[in-house]
Amino acid sequence: MDNKIIGSNLRRIREARGLTQSRVADLAGISRIAYRNIESGTSTPKVSTLQNISNGIGIKLQDLLVPVSTLSNVRFRASKKMRSRDNILTEVARWLEDFNYLENLLDDHSKYHFRSLAEELALVPHGPDRAKVAAERVREEMGLTKKEPIRDIAGILEFNGIKVYPIVLVSEGFFGLSVSEHEKGPAIIVNAWDRISVERWIFSAAHELGHLLLHLDSYDVDNNTEDSDEEVEANIFASYFLMPESAFVSEWDETYGLPFVARILKVKRIFQVSYKTVLYRLSDKMGPSIWGKFQTAYKLKTGKTLRLMDEPEALPPDKFQQSPEVLRSQEPDSLSSSHFVEDRLYKLVRNAIEKEEITMSRGAEILRLDLEDMRNIVSFWV
After folding, report:
1. pTM to 2 decimals?
2. Which residue, of 17, 42, 65, is where some domain finishes?
């Protein structure tokens, strides 16, 4: 065992969970001094002691023994400082290692299709026009028609060589991150916490795709400060990627005879976006008064008041203890999680298990599943 690795992992995990050394020592049934010496790497702990620590803080023993993988070509911004940032980066690095390991093992790689486009866009002046052009061009390269909604964003990203990881993190300040092609990627990671609307998952994936195409020079793990101009550009890209202008105008015109709220919700459902994304697009044409008009009409129809928040919306801290259904009701007529499903890693795991390249337990580890859940999945393979 490497005492320095164990100590580094312990400190990272402890700080991410907001625990003091004394608290972890109590959970493990050891003295604070004994725990301090383990975390500092000055003493060699017994395996039984490490197991007690792992059980106390709810992690696997392996999490303490494995060296921390690092990423550098990452774009990771959050609206507030996060204690769990290092933990997220470590988990993403391990996930990417597993993903690439399986691709190499099976000689099954998915080609990244947008390298040339990103290099071309880097020469275009930044701004809204560049974001709109990028959205149009990437849709063309994906083989989508100008009026075709994106029904399966995770699937289409994976088909075009971008790895997708719906990680679950209880946080009001983190929606997603991306890893560049130059470091085991490209990859898009989306916070799929069940108290964030699925529409927001989809928008986050499109937003991160915008960064991969438009902001390659900002992929630096040491930079965690949001650039407002880049965020706006990525938001515009996501809006026009998910709702191409000609398709949006056509679908909006088709709903001409419907009540206003019904028009918004029908267009939202067609493109699988948040009602805010629809209103933002309309506000460009009709002015900001469209927001108040929708709020008034929605309250008359449902008796509820929707929050006027900038896109992207962060969940209010006082709502965290409510059920997912209550929180998702802030997104009217919301989608289900079945609208955001990545499946390439599952396919690789199945192929590797069936070819006896890996064990079922290794497959469970790669998919971040309990062995019993993995057995249930395997039992229903057809």
Report:
1. 0.82
2. 65
